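Team,

Forwarding the record for the chain on the shared tracking sheet. I've put the sequence and predicted structure together so nobody has to dig through attachments.
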Amino acid sequence: MNLKVGDKVKFLDATGGGIVRKIIDSRMVLIAVEGGFEIPTLSSKLLKMESSEAGQRFFNESFDIPSAHEPETSGPQTDEIISNLPEVVTKNRKVEEVCLAFVPHDQKWLITGVMDVFLINNTSFDLLYNHFRKQGKVHYSGVDYGSLNAGAKLLLATVDRDQLSEWESGCLQFLFHKEQCPEIPSPVNAEFEIQGKKFYTEGSYRESALVEGKGIIIRIANLNQEFQGTSAQKDARKVSTKSERRPLDEFILKHQTADREAEVDLHLASLAENIGKFEKGEILEFQKNYFERALESAIYNKFRKVTFIHGVGNGVLRESVVEILNKYSSIEVFDAPIHKYGAGAIEIRIPFNMQLHDPSK
């Protein structure tokens, strides 16, 4: 139901009703009731009373709401839930990305209290979005849909800590629009999964100009993967993501070592001819994208086993690889043989490809 500030409503699961004072987010509004109180209520639990429909006229009744607090209704209610990103972000944008952000109201006590959930469109495209919540292994329920201008963020919800489990997994779909663009970005169908313990770990919250404070930022889509930049950026970003699920080329074949087996060295010197073109912040992103493209290509081309060499170093690349692998529930992960790789490699086995005999089928 599309409510706006000033609408008269009736409670569906309680007696009485009131007037919409504020749009809290896409699912919840603040209702002013008799006695001067204001109650946050789910939109789905309300019936809009001022309507020409016969069923709603039947339930119409008046409420004594103090007029001194009557809200102005001339302005759009979306002003309270949509805001532009800071100019420092949009002017210095290097990556066209769409993110989810979880931002605590109390910036001193990050792991307690209520939290805002934002959809952030840090791209030069307007977008249409569709949000599904995952229920079980194979079922989804539609939660929300709408649009968001380029360089803006949308408050999707304000949630208590006990509601955060509803945001640990789901799927977001995007369509992108611009009046003039050299290439058309593909629609994105991106599943996401967040480990619940992150919400209760202070180290998970990082300072970010996207939210002008500390929050957990989850990248959902990266449009740079659709366009050409410098040769280094093209190699790093023009990859097929898991979320797009497009038929992959034979990318993995150049790493093949045996029948439907491959070995991929993720060290930068092994992946790119000219490493001097990379900025410092682009290296890890390049390695992660290369890893996921190789893995997706291995799955598509019916490989049984792939060994990824990540090295030891500070462990950041290995952690990033493991985090990506958490999205793949049907893949087996092992430490690669120590006598051959030391502690710097993992072995991926793809069970549903193990019994296939003809890779061409």
